[in-house]
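Limitations
The structure tokens in this dataset are predictions for the assembled complex, not deposited experimental models. Users should treat interface geometry with appropriate caution, especially where small molecules or nucleic acid strands are included. An illustrative entry is reproduced here so readers can see what is and is not provided.
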Amino acid sequence: MPDDRQRGLEMFLQRLLLRTQLTAEEQDAIRALPARVEDVRAGRDVVVPGEHTSESCMIVSGLMSRFDVLLDGRRQTVALYVPGEMCDLHSVPVPTAGWGLEAVANSRLLFVPHAALRDLARNASLALAFWCDTAADGSILAKWVANIGRAQAPPRVAHLFCELGLRMELAGLGSRSEFELPMTQAQLADAVGMTSVHLNRTLKALAAKGVTFVRKQVCIADWKAAAELAEFEPTYLVLPEETLPPA
Amino acid sequence: MPDDRQRGLEMFLQRLLLRTQLTAEEQDAIRALPARVEDVRAGRDVVVPGEHTSESCMIVSGLMSRFDVLLDGRRQTVALYVPGEMCDLHSVPVPTAGWGLEAVANSRLLFVPHAALRDLARNASLALAFWCDTAADGSILAKWVANIGRAQAPPRVAHLFCELGLRMELAGLGSRSEFELPMTQAQLADAVGMTSVHLNRTLKALAAKGVTFVRKQVCIADWKAAAELAEFEPTYLVLPEETLPPA
DNA sequence: CGATCGGTTGAAATCCGTCAACGCCCGTGG
DNA sequence: CCACGGGCGTTGACGGATTTCAACCGATCG
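Predicted assembly:
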């Protein structure tokens, strides 16, 4: 359990190294960050919308959702975060969030004080690395806007599955065509902007095309076909060549 | 015209100062950036999706759209940028864009080489300022996901009008309740993820509530009522207190 | 003057949300 | 051991929201 702090920071470092080169000293600075490990249960709100935060949050295991609330209480998930990702790095420069952060599944989180990250950001390379991560996060958000804004339900869901497949594979959790997605249909519906009822029907339609989501397990029989159906084009994930599917 | 370079850089600087404090030297460094002014006509694609860019783009006047394309050619606008905003700052850390950039109206743009911005980012405060701007951009994207993902068309359009009202007011172009929005209904439809036909009908419904969009002019009779209808809550714009509407 | 673009309107088809009910699984408590 | 209840998934029927297809009009421009 105390080693999970080291493990979490190492995951964070590897994430940064995906997109930015860092010297040995800079890498050690990340490893030396102060951090606190905490387990949260599924359904728990880690950050309440409107709250002022002083720590950023990294996911060691589990699944987190960044969400917005409507007056009637309905939630819209605007981003999902898988293990190895910093779900809150943007809160360092912008600490007063307009959104909330919820544990979709039981999760182990690593909390890092903003002050420590701000301090590290005085180093130019590390600042660039943080900036880069935030830009990549924004790139995914932009894609979500496009995905939710335009497509019919089946490609919308398929697109999310393709994206999460790659991200899960990168996290070392299964493969892009078969991975565990520890969320309910209702939570998934919130993420793609539809009703759980309609999502359920959409899943049945997708099952006919070899894309299934059963017992929290996503299976994509023909990944290439699914990517085509979803018009999935992974550039926006800002990942290095070798982790991407062949064109 | 040569002065527009200075004017554009000054707008950029003021934008950064909204959210970050900078010393006189740092401010001068922004003012001394190399930059190129260019006028583009409405409808012109400044950045083609998938292209590798080596310059960031600031808007001196006009209106820009960041968009994603579908195979069938339809576009989904994922972000709109008004004068005074850097529509491309994230391309410094992430130069291979998955999206395109289009001039919605005739626009005057200021292009700044990535290299120069990267160079400035070696300064910790400036790096934080850039990071902050990118995070704010992401915050708006997140809100767009929530806005588009939610059901009804009228609040969706009203929300966009409220947001653009504040951003236009901040840019010194009209007020939050009356400003020019130089785009066609079809372009607006792309931005909110609906058909131009349905947008047209939605506009008529909104007109009955005092929110009009006629001859590219947005008028909001009762701003507070419109904000309530749209469930507009401006925290996500990451603007200083005094520029926000009273609660 | 014709052509094109942007806006407007109508009618039909489709997608999707709402309401409601039911079954399954699993944990809890009797 | 069984009864109960709640969370979750599933399904049907219905209505409303949105898209699609189509036509028309006014303004602008060559």
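Some entries come with short summary sentences. For this one: Chain B touches chain A through 49 residues (CB under 8 Å).
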